[in-house]
Design goal:
By secondary structure, this protein is mainly α. It contains six helices and three strands; from the N terminus they run ααβααββαα. The chain is about 60% helix and about 10% strand.
């Protein structure tokens, strides 16, 4: 059992309601986006990997950099990449500048799958989030998530 000396700063009733709405809302968004991508044989995490790889000129990234971008541990990313390699949508290659390093590289099949899935994914994002909130709320959400991303990590 973990003991702590932290004096809790409990959430107010309003903060607690908002927090629970956040959890329910993000859960629903991720579930619906994941379900849409399943028809393409992908999950949301795999789709995000394909997007990050496609953003680079050679459609490749060092595995450690990719893990940071998709917020996965290196071991979890290795497992996901292995699954994606089995589907022939990406491959691992030696890093040309550092032979110890490993790169993930999008295959032609993976890029074609991304091109096919992307319009459906964007429509899903619009349907479950963008089009259901007021434009000013969507902009505020961007500011809010930007602040969360930029906040220093607590260990």
């Amino acid at each position: 059992m973990r003991t702590t000396s932290i004096k809790p700063r409990w959430l107010s009733t309003e903060q607690q309601v908002i927090w629970r709405q956040f959890l329910s809302g993000t859960g629903r968004i991720f579930a619906e986006l994941d379900a849409e991508l399943r028809s393409f044989g992908l999950d949301l995490g795999e789709y995000e990997i394909l997007v990050h790889l496609s953003d680079n000129p050679d459609h490749e990234l060092r595995m450690s950099e990719l893990a940071d971008k998709v917020r996965q541990s290196r071991s979890r990313l290795t497992h996901t990449v292995s699954r994606m390699e089995a589907k022939n949508i990406l491959t691992r290659i030696a890093c040309p500048s550092d032979r110890r390093g490993v790169m993930a590289k999008l295959t032609d099949e993976g890029y074609a799958l991304l091109v096919e899935a992307a319009p459906h994914h964007v429509e899903s994002v619009r349907r479950v989030l963008v089009d259901v909130v007021a434009p000013e709320d969507f902009i505020a959400l961007g500011r809010l998530m930007g602040a969360v991303v930029e906040a220093p990590e607590q260990s």
